Amino acid sequence: MDSRPNFSPSPSRLRLRRLGIDTYQEPVLFMHRDCPVCSSEGFEAQSRVEIGLAGRTIVATLNVVTGDFLAPDEAGLSEAAWRLLSPSPGDQATLRHPPPLESLGHVRAKVYGRRLTEAAAQAVIGDIAAGRYSDLQLAAFVTACAGDRLDLQETVDLTRAMFRAGERMRWGDGLVMDKHCVGGIPGNRTTMLVVPIVAACGLRMPKTSSRAITSPAGTADAMETLAPVDLDVARIRRVVERTGACIVWGGAVRLSPADDILIRVERPLDLDSQGQLVASILSKKIAAGATHVLIDMPVGPTAKVRSDADAAHLSRLLHAVGAALELTIRVAPTDGLAPVGRGIGPALEARDVLAVLRGGAGAPVDLAGRACSLAGEILEMGGMAAAGAGRALAQEVLRDGRAWRKFQEICEAQGGMREPPVAAHVREVPAARSGLVAAVDNRRLARIAKLAGAPKTACAGIDLHVVPGDFVERGQALFTLHAGSPGTLAYALDYALQQPEAIQVVEDAW
Amino acid sequence: MDSRPNFSPSPSRLRLRRLGIDTYQEPVLFMHRDCPVCSSEGFEAQSRVEIGLAGRTIVATLNVVTGDFLAPDEAGLSEAAWRLLSPSPGDQATLRHPPPLESLGHVRAKVYGRRLTEAAAQAVIGDIAAGRYSDLQLAAFVTACAGDRLDLQETVDLTRAMFRAGERMRWGDGLVMDKHCVGGIPGNRTTMLVVPIVAACGLRMPKTSSRAITSPAGTADAMETLAPVDLDVARIRRVVERTGACIVWGGAVRLSPADDILIRVERPLDLDSQGQLVASILSKKIAAGATHVLIDMPVGPTAKVRSDADAAHLSRLLHAVGAALELTIRVAPTDGLAPVGRGIGPALEARDVLAVLRGGAGAPVDLAGRACSLAGEILEMGGMAAAGAGRALAQEVLRDGRAWRKFQEICEAQGGMREPPVAAHVREVPAARSGLVAAVDNRRLARIAKLAGAPKTACAGIDLHVVPGDFVERGQALFTLHAGSPGTLAYALDYALQQPEAIQVVEDAW
């Protein structure tokens, strides 16, 4: 690391320019090789540079430009850097060496097998939340903690450091219910049913959800096809005061901001770390003000948690960390073998939710059943039902229309309810042979839905017509592709036809 | 990781364009958001993309452009990507998903504490050398192996995988001497003396050196001020056949290419790993065809090896790995307290070397002494001197002009000898008080030399006038700054005046 020279012979200022380069959230600065600041400050490609504007500073990684699309008196910003600084056109920023990143010493100590102390976790997470770590440094921290190298106390300290580094919502006295799904199952849109069921029974459930990161739809994406989700803290508070609940996008609230930053390197590295997973989940929940959290944990070979042993280990860790941080946790292991509901994609998933709420004949029973189980657990946790009686209560609230009325109430409070969009371009994908639907590959289905345009195109995705155990005839539709344009439809179809493992049909052996 | 769809509905081709963006060696691809390939292939920011051109393929990280400096039918390349593909203007490249990176499984296994097997090391290093790892993935591998997590056998296997992944120079029968300095001491330009001394005694010493990575000058930078160093393999061979030695830049030969790639992430992470250091050093030497290697290991608080215990541990590992790979190793711990010679910077270091070779009155005795010690060790290893008699032989060869004649011979064979350039802008930096020169901070001096323009400006750097233990009067020159322009001179001077710790003068206590 460079250390910051403790002087500045002349303030180094350059005109900021938005280059329109999406570096996937890493703030990147572009300076011309002939830029006076580059040579006077001794910056070179890959240097970390502190950019200051009107009292705000960010740290970015430098790319040195020799091309002519950037002038020597300009400092070009990547989209992430531009968002963080939000300059006005023509603004001049100050460029200097960032202070030495002392907390990297703690990362090195962890690499060397020493424990991450509470103070170390606070220092590292504070610097990460402030955007002071480069992607390489983030990758080193993630790797140093992966492979189950965090013990219980380290996980507790990391979780605490993570929620302390951001905002924390407070809801006053009383219970605040929350739920989280560990993920990996497309279409698992139970949240939009659980929240109205639980709230209709009188429990408070302010739910902040994420948009899709790698999946074809996040809860916020699906909910957004029915009502606005991009609310600020004051609006969220009003919705919850009025209805007892909300289903909003968490991005407008700075809850556990280090988590969002760590996720951007955890994803391409695909390094599983139970300690980091627990810290990620629970720090968000504590920051959101929850007192009771139900963890929906789908277990299956193509889900995130792949075995019962992994599920048991993760459950123990969640309970232990929750206990240390005064958060009541209940874990519900669920079937992670196949998608839940029929739709995969924002609008198609919202359509399934509406069908269940409205109680129509075609409503997916698996989605309704799973939502009632989960809501039942929360009702029991919150003292609204005796042990074992929660599910029945949830079913009753769903059947008699109370959940549907509560859902409409929430949508209206969030800004008004709307119908989900419907795709103009659809195409059925037929079975290549007659036989038994033996298996469904969640990852391949997710990829097909994304190729069809989900989640960006809200109406795009997959409508499943079969589940494992069904018998199909050759040529019978396995699923229908939904797309926003003929081109993406054709592309997703081509791909789907080459992926027979997505929905595996085996010939009848009898 | 994305898996590669096993089809391609239409080959995805775009016109390549050199954008002139230096991303510090990571190959980066820029595509416009509206580019048809982006949407049809499902690429998004941070996707890894395989770029194919005329049978050659590289893998690059995608940045998505929304600005207007790139057209939708263009694929912009960073400098590193452009170098690797070396396209002609207007060339069209094929863009597709790279094959799944199976070797990442071995990295994950190492993260989880399992051993890196020989097959795993071959697979990982093969993919790294082929440029298939992103910087994030490289950082994960480096971190997983750091903290002394590689045992002896893993280090041997890693070393073997590294030299096998590139070219290997072969020199026929007989001894091939080499040396390596572990680094951290500015101005330690002994190689340019050791090679002619050793070669003058009849030992073969084909020396490939590096350019500066973080220092104000590498051996290749200093040598280049006296003779061409950028020779291809055939030229190198001719020089060695004619003179028995060479001092060239190793960059033109693909020796242990994974090492160069790993270094680009090790540097910003600053994670010390003795296993990786040994694999890095020895894989380069074996690839260069050496049979006997002397390791110059400066030990000192601001050198790379900071304590005698570290030095002992590193020595043991070097010997053990060398023995396993049939390489004879000798380690020479040297004083790492202060710079060697007077000059810091390519031309100033070359000037010191010339002074020693020519035997002038002002030649730095510390540089001459150290070079003779190291050369003596090599002469003993090569059987040219009895144990303990090598240093005296080296001194004789230096004193009687044989080394100087051999050096001139080498320079002529490499393309012709020249005088090093002299800076037009110089300025003395005076002592702020009278007293004893107590300590010299190698890192601060290196930074001042770099601010003055070294190594890019060959004549730039620092000329030291004092060594620890000297007494100085207030106002007496501690060193002279050399620069290529008045601006950089003023800048480096400003900085130097604020860094009294660079050369620490303590007042006389008597």
TrEMBL record, chains A, B:
GO biological process, one term: pyrimidine nucleobase metabolic process
Highest rank taxon of the organism: Bacteria
Xref: Pfam families: Glycos_trans_3N (PF02885), Glycos_transf_3 (PF00591), PYNP_C (PF07831)
Keyword Transferase found: yes
GO CC, alphabetical: cytosol
Substrates-to-products reaction catalysed: thymidine + phosphate = 2-deoxy-alpha-D-ribose 1-phosphate + thymine
GO molecular function: 1,4-alpha-oligoglucan phosphorylase activity; thymidine phosphorylase activity
Domain Pyrimidine nucleoside phosphorylase C-terminal: 436-503
Key words of the record: Glycosyltransferase, Transferase
SUPFAM superfamilies, per the entry: Nucleoside phosphorylase/phosphoribosyltransferase catalytic domain, Nucleoside phosphorylase/phosphoribosyltransferase N-terminal domain, Pyrimidine nucleoside phosphorylase C-terminal domain
EC number(s) given by UniProt: 2.4.2.4
Keyword Magnesium carried by entry: no
Family designation: Belongs to the thymidine/pyrimidine-nucleoside phosphorylase family. Type 2 subfamily.
Protein name: Putative thymidine phosphorylase
Top-level taxonomy: Bacteria, Pseudomonadati, Pseudomonadota, Betaproteobacteria, Burkholderiales
